[in-house]
Fold this sequence. Notes:
The protein has twelve helices and 14 strands. The chain folds into two domains: 3-106, Enolase-like, domain 1 (2-Layer Sandwich); 120-318, TIM Barrel (Alpha-Beta Barrel), CATH 3.20.20.120. By secondary structure, it is an alpha/beta fold. Residues 131-222 form the Mandelate racemase/muconate lactonizing enzyme C-terminal domain.
Amino acid sequence: MTRVLSVVDERFPIAGTFTISRGSKTEAEVITCEIAESGVIGRGECVPYKRYGETMAGVAEAIEQARHAIEDGASRTDLLTLMSAGAARNAVDCALWDLEAKLSGVPVKDRLGIAAPLALETAYTLSLGEPETMAAQARANAARPLLKVKIGGDNDIARIRAVTEAAPDSRIILDANEGWTDANIAENLAAAAQLGIALIEQPLPAGADQILGRIPHPVPICADESVHIAADLAELKGRYDAVNIKLDKSGGLTAALELRDQARTLGFQVMVGCMVGTSLAMAPAVLLAQGAEFVDLDGPLLLARDRSPGLVYEGSMVSPPLPELWG
């Protein structure tokens, strides 16, 4: 067996500007890992995330540091100890899943026991802005059944009200990106419940969310920044009702499957989410998200240009990946 690893950094423009409580971006910066063996190439994509101290250069270097072991035949299981959870391991892990499928002729869906993966309803994300701006975004997307709304600052109740009034038939997820405080969370939760919000993601900073175990949850609360791998779950019981699983946090599909199954065992609802990346990053997540209560895999819909071939989106429905893309 002779493997050759390559690492490429790529940039894909975002359609407009994508804004959350921590800042704005105009392009998706991604790293693609390719592993060639016996004339076929497996691919995986990751999105370095500054919130976790990741940079494009740092993630590329982490993959390079594992090059020798990967080219010598390291397995996906080996990666769990060879590399830390995070974007770098995600790119390599997903590339190995793709490579295994191509070498064996057995698609990833069959390896996962999914005979016929379904198209899934994905949330569509609205950027953080002033209430009037967010209402305009919501109005333009009011036909979508599920919206994810970025909040996390002063005047959030006005933002929530503006969006719910502009898209009265949509279910709405709020994503505060750690932007609320102990002082305003009870008031914000009460307003969210009154306005019919379906789910609230990570209202408080990771590591400073103890109050969630002591206050009522009139709306289910989902951990995002507070959960990366299965070992994180035990501490979250009683604070959160759901967990948002992202491949870039867990460090690949292999670890994400363990996280999903353990979350189910502990009684958490499951959301499968994403960073802003291309269809190559979303493809394994679509298989992971089969049966999830909430799906947020709209990354390619936010881009001005995606990969070709990409995932097929029809409205808010995303179809499973074709082998030409991944898996």
